[in-house]
C-alpha cells in the first residue's frame, strides 16, 4: 500500500484518474441496466395503450359508474367526462349503501354478465407489474450521472493534455493514458447517445399515454402504471373468488402460489386478511389480531391454520436469518385448509341469510 501511494504521488491528478477508472469499471453494467429498464418501461406503456380489453374495461366502468350515480337515461356527461387512472385505486374502497359489496365487486359481476372477455384484460398487460416498480425519476437521475461521468472523462483528457513534465517516461505514459481516455470517452458518448434516444422515446410514449387516456401531466408515469398494476391484481383476485362462488365449488378455488417463499407468505396472509375483514368483519392491525377479533365464530382447526400462516409470515419478515419457509408444502396446505373452511362458512352464511348483493352507489372521477 505504501509503495502504491509513493508511485501515485508522482502521477499528476491521480485522484481524478482513479475516479475515471472506477467509472470505466462500472459503466458497462450501469448502462446495460439503465437501457434494459428504459426498454421495459417503453414496452409496458405500449402494452397498456394497445390493450383493447383494458380500454374497454375503463369505458365499462365509466358508464356503469355514471349509471349508478345519475340513473338510466340521464344526460350525465355534463358532470363526469371520463374516468382517471388514479381513480382505479378507489374502486375497492367504494362500498354499497349496505356495506356488503364494493363497487369493484359489482363491476366484476356486471362485466361477467355483459362483457366477459374484458375480465381477462390483465392477459394483455404481462409487463405492467414489473414496470410499476421502476422509478422514472431514478432512471433519469442515473442517465444524468452517466453523462456527468462522460464530462469527467473529457475534462481529464483535456487536463492531461496541458500538463508539462521533463520526465520522458512519464510524458510517454501520460500521452498513452490521454489517448486511451480520449478513445474511451468517444465510445461512452456513442453509447449514451443511444440511451438518449431511449429517453426521448420514453417521453414520446408517455405523452401518447397521457393523450390516449386523457390524463393531465400531474403524476409520474410510473405512479400511473402502479395504479393500473394494483387494479389488475385486485381485479384478478376478486374475479377468481367470484368465479369460485358462482360455480358452487369453493373447495377447488385456484390460488396462484408464488415461487418466492417471502412473496408467498405475504400474498397468502393478505388473502386471509381480506376474507376475514370483508366477510367476518374482523379488525386489527395484522392477521393475528384479525383472527383474534372473531375467534369464536371460526372453528378451532381453522384458527390454528390461520395462525400458522401468520406466524411464519411474521418470522420471514422480521427474522433476517430466516430465508425460506421451513416446510413449503405444509404452509400451502394450512392456507388451503383455512381458505376452504372460510369459503364454506361464507357460503353458508349467505344461503342462511338469503342475501342477494345490491348494486352500489358510486362516485368516481
From TrEMBL:
Domain FH2 residues, every copy = 1-261
Question: Which domain of life does the protein's organism represent?
Answer: Eukaryota
Under InterPro entries, the record lists: FH2_Formin, FH2_Formin_sf, Formin_Homology
User: Which SUPFAM superfamilies does this entry report, sorted A to Z?
Assistant: Formin homology 2 domain (FH2 domain)
- Extract the PROSITE patterns matched here: FH2 (PS51444)
From the Swiss-Prot or TrEMBL record, give the protein name.
FH2 domain-containing protein
The species is Phytophthora palmivora
Amino acid at each position: 500500500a505504501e509503495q502504491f501511494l509513493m508511485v501515485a504521488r508522482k502521477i499528476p491528478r491521480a485522484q481524478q484518474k482513479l475516479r475515471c477508472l472506477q467509472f470505466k469499471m462500472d459503466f458497462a453494467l450501469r448502462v446495460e441496466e439503465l437501457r434494459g429498464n428504459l426498454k421495459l418501461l417503453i414496452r409496458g406503456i405500449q402494452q397498456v395503450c394497445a390493450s383493447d380489453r383494458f380500454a374497454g374495461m375503463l369505458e365499462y366502468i365509466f358508464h356503469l359508474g355514471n349509471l349508478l350515480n345519475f340513473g338510466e337515461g340521464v344526460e350525465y356527461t355534463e358532470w363526469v367526462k371520463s374516468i382517471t387512472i388514479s381513480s382505479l385505486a378507489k374502486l375497492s374502497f367504494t362500498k354499497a349503501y349496505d356495506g356488503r359489496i364494493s363497487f369493484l365487486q359489482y363491476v366484476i359481476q356486471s362485466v361477467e354478465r355483459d362483457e366477459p372477455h374484458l375480465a381477462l384484460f390483465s392477459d394483455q398487460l404481462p409487463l405492467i407489474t414489473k414496470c410499476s416498480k421502476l422509478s422514472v425519476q431514478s432512471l433519469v437521475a442515473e442517465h444524468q450521472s452517466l453523462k456527468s461521468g462522460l464530462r469527467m472523462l473529457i475534462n481529464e483528457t483535456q487536463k492531461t493534455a496541458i500538463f508539462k513534465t521533463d520526465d520522458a517516461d512519464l510524458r510517454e505514459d501520460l500521452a498513452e493514458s490521454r489517448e486511451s481516455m480520449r478513445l474511451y470517452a468517444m465510445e461512452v458518448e456513442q453509447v449514451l447517445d443511444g440511451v438518449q434516444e431511449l429517453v426521448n422515446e420514453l417521453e414520446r410514449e408517455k405523452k401518447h399515454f397521457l393523450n390516449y387516456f386523457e390524463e393531465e401531466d400531474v403524476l409520474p408515469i410510473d405512479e400511473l402504471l402502479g395504479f393500473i398494476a394494483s387494479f389488475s391484481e385486485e381485479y384478478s383476485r376478486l374475479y377468481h373468488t367470484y368465479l369460485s362462488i358462482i360455480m358452487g365449488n369453493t373447495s377447488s378455488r385456484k390460488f396462484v402460489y408464488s415461487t418466492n417463499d417471502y412473496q408467498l407468505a405475504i400474498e397468502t396472509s393478505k388473502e386471509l386478511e381480506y376474507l376475514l375483514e370483508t366477510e367476518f368483519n374482523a379488525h386489527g392491525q395484522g392477521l393475528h389480531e384479525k383472527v383474534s377479533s372473531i375467534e369464536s365464530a371460526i372453528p378451532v382447526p381453522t384458527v390454528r391454520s390461520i395462525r400458522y400462516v401468520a406466524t411464519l409470515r411474521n418470522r420471514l419478515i422480521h427474522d433476517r436469518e430466516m430465508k425460506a419457509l421451513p416446510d413449503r408444502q405444509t404452509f400451502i396446505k394450512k392456507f388451503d385448509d383455512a381458505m376452504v373452511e372460510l369459503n364454506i362458512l361464507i357460503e353458508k352464511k349467505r344461503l342462511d341469510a338469503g342475501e342477494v348483493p345490491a348494486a352500489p352507489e358510486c362516485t368516481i372521477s
